[in-house]
Amino acid sequence: MATIRNELPAYVRNAVPVPLDKRAPWYVNTAPTYAGIFLWIAFYDQLAKGLTLGTLWAVLLGVVIAGAVCHYFFYYVPGLLGMKTGQPLYIVGTSTFGIKGGYFIPGIFMGLLQIGWYSVATYYATKLILNGLGYPAITPYGLEEEGYARAWDATFIVLAFVWGYLFALVGGLGIEYVARVAQIFPVVPIVMLLLGGVLALPHLKAYIETPVPSDFDTTYVSAGTLLMIQLIVGFFGTAGAVGADFCANNRTRQDVSLGGLVGIWAAIVFTAGLAIVTVAGAHGADPTKIASLPADERYRYGQALQILGPAWLSRSMLILFAIGSMAPACFCSFIIGNSLSTMLGKPQARIPITLAGTTVGISIAVTGASANLAPYFGLIGASFGPVIGAMAADYFLSGGEWSGPREGVNWAGYLAWIVGFLVGISNNDVVAGVLGFKPLADWHPTGVYSLLIGAVVYVVAARTIGLPARIPGAVPVVRPADE
Description:
The longest helix is centred in the middle third of the chain and has 33 residues, at 253-285. Helix content is 66%, strand content 0%. The chain has one domain: Amino acid/polyamine transporter I, CATH 1.20.1740. The protein is mainly alpha-helical.
């Protein structure tokens, strides 16, 4: 076995499980960590777009369903795998993708996607601060419109780099520093969301539903409901897979379950529900002002705040939301450095790797390309939906246990990812630009489709082409007593 261990990749050979005496209840780690992710304004700023395709009640129903889907489909199996082994995602993923295949999926791939998320974090924080200080709103993709500034305005660029590097450094220093930030700043968006809901409540009766275009009409369910599932699942894709990392710090199956029910499902309903109600209230409060905004801005939460409250309050709230986004920014930068330094075998270079990755993210942010989140959410859901689907299939094929690392590349996992990813991007704007049309409408929850297809393809491939041999004892695990 010593010879075998010497032949293992460094990231597998050096894997150390979280010991039982270092684990804690769900309300100490899993729930607050996930809740902090959903308290990020980048999550709910554009969710009210669903109101263009359905009634307020239909959209809120979609929020509730999306919370259940995120918990049960995208988080629960990775969470159980982490809890049962004490190992992070890039280790438990070696059963589904192999010890060589695991280099890229989920290892390096996770770090690369987090660079994109860091661009979103930087863009939103910079935009909110400037709007709060009275600067013009930033036009998505730098398009010229009256009253709007280009995203690459000098002030925007300077602030973006200052903000981006500050929280890149915090994330690069380690998870203990990220945890300190996460314990403090989520309180800010909670208070702001509640205040926005209170300001909106008196105007909900005046809200007039938007007529749904006939080509978006569905026979059995509102397209607005389905769009909510697509957007929320897309945002949650990578975070669901990281449930393995979070729940490696949990003690029992109950911790995994309650951590997800509170930190994911309840947090989604709270944040997304209040944000959508706030936007609806703004439409009822001043429909004329709403109509004067560019189409892309009419259903943004940030714009709704500026309509509902006095100028001093709304601007202060925007700056406070930027402050509240510190925790997600630190989390993204930590994942960038941790994933890439681990998979590249250079843990001592975590800070330089973090800064290099976040530099790419900041550079994307200053172009304004991080403004339109719907295609990005869809891409994330398509990217990690089949990863989680394949992991879930492997978990159930192994009798509800982790099968352990497999040799080489597990082609069943990669085939599941490729097919699932193609299904997942079938309604993405990037695909539409290449093909000249969209195979599926925007409101289809293709992130969910990609997970289901990934699971089915993995099972079929496992039964036909087979799975690589397991490597018994290659990775130490720490199993809770009741497992």
